[in-house]
Specification:
Elements lengths: L3 H7 L27 H11 L5 H16 L4 H7 L21 E6 L5 E4 L12 E10 L2 E6 L4 E6 L2 E2 L2 E2 L2 E2 L6 E4 L6 E7 L6 H8 L4 H7 L12 H10 L3 H19 L1
Antiparallel strand pairs: 1-10, 2-9, 3-4, 3-10, 4-5, 6-7, 8-9
C-alpha cells in the first residue's frame, strides 16, 4: 500500500480523494479505517488530540513521519511498503499567515469587519480549523454559528462611530466587530497551529499508565516476545533520545494497526 505506515498512523478513509487540506498526502482509495482497541485509542488522543480534524492529522503525521525518517528507524517504515509519495523536505506550514484568522463577506453591501484576539491551542481538542457563519439579522442583532461542533448564538450589539462593540465568536476566544448592515453575511475561518512540542507529547505519553503500554507492545504475548515489537518496546523504555524513544511507540502503533487489518 502506498504511504503504508503513514496511512496506518492517521487511519482515515481513503475513498474521498484530495481535498486541498494543507499538508495532505495520498491515502490509497481502497483503505478502510481499522477499528482500534481502547489502548491505541487512548494513545492516539495524546498524539492527535481528542477529536482530530484532517488538518491536525496531517500536521502531526508530518512531524511523526519526519521523526521516523530522521533515523535508521525509517527501515521499519519502508519494510511495510517502500512506495512513498510524501516529500519531507517540503515545508507546507512555513508561512505563519496560514495561522491568522481570515474572513470573507458573502452577502450584503460591503461593510466593516474586524477580528480580535487569539484562539486557544488545539492540542487537546485536536481541532485546528474552525469555521463560522455570521449574519446581521436585525438593526442590532447578529447571528453567529460555528459549523463544527455545531454551536450558535444571537448576539445584540451597539454601535460607536459606525462600528459595533466586540462580539464573541461562539465556541472560541476570538471576537469580531462589524458595521451596521442588515443582511450582511460573512464566513470566518481560523486555522490554529498546535503548540505542544514532541518532547512534551512523549512526556505526557509516559504518564498514560502501564497497562496501556503493555498492551501496545504486546508484553506477555507471543507477538510481544518477537521482533520487531521487542525492539519497539526497548526503544520506548530504554532510549533517551526522542527520535528513538517516541519512534518506538509510533512504530508499535503502526505495526499493531497493520496486524489488525
Amino acid at each position: 500500500m502506498i504511504n503504508h505506515a503513514r496511512t496506518l498512523l492517521i487511519n482515515v478513509h481513503g475513498g474521498h480523494g484530495f481535498t486541498g487540506t494543507v499538508g495532505e498526502e495520498l491515502v490509497p482509495a481502497e483503505y478502510v479505517p481499522v477499528a482500534l482497541p481502547s489502548h491505541i485509542t487512548s494513545i492516539r488522543k495524546i498524539l492527535f488530540g481528542g477529536t482530530p480534524d484532517k488538518e491536525m492529522l496531517n500536521y502531526r503525521a508530518r512531524q511523526y513521519m519526519a521523526l521516523l525518517h530522521a533515523t535508521e528507524l525509517a527501515e521499519f517504515v519502508t519494510d511495510l511498503d517502500s512506495r512513498i509519495t510524501y516529500d519531507l523536505a517540503d515545508e507546507p506550514y512555513f508561512d505563519d499567515n496560514l495561522f491568522k484568522p481570515s474572513y470573507r463577506q458573502t452577502a450584503g453591501a460591503t461593510t466593516q469587519f474586524a477580528i480580535l484576539g487569539e484562539i486557544l491551542s488545539p492540542d487537546s481538542s485536536g481541532t485546528m480549523r474552525l469555521t463560522w457563519d455570521i449574519e446581521v439579522t436585525g438593526g442590532a442583532t447578529v447571528h453567529v454559528q460555528l459549523r463544527s461542533p455545531l454551536r450558535a448564538a444571537d448576539e445584540a450589539y451597539t454601535l460607536t462611530s459606525g462600528l459595533s462593540n466586540a462580539i464573541p465568536l461562539v465556541g472560541s476566544t476570538l471576537q469580531f466587530k462589524i458595521g451596521n448592515e442588515v443582511g450582511a453575511k460573512w464566513v470566518v475561518t481560523s486555522l490554529t497551529r498546535p503548540t505542544m512540542e514532541l518532547g512534551a507529547i512523549a512526556e505526557k505519553l509516559s504518564t498514560i499508565g502501564e497497562p496501556t503500554m503493555l498492551e501496545l507492545f504486546g508484553v506477555g504475548s507471543q507477538q510481544g516476545a518477537s521482533e520487531p515489537f521487542k525492539t519497539f518496546r526497548n526503544l520506548w523504555y530504554q532510549h533517551h533520545e526522542l527520535p528513538y524513544k517516541l519512534g518506538g511507540l509510533l512504530l508499535a502503533m503502526i505495526y499493531q494497526t497493520d496486524k489488525l487489518r
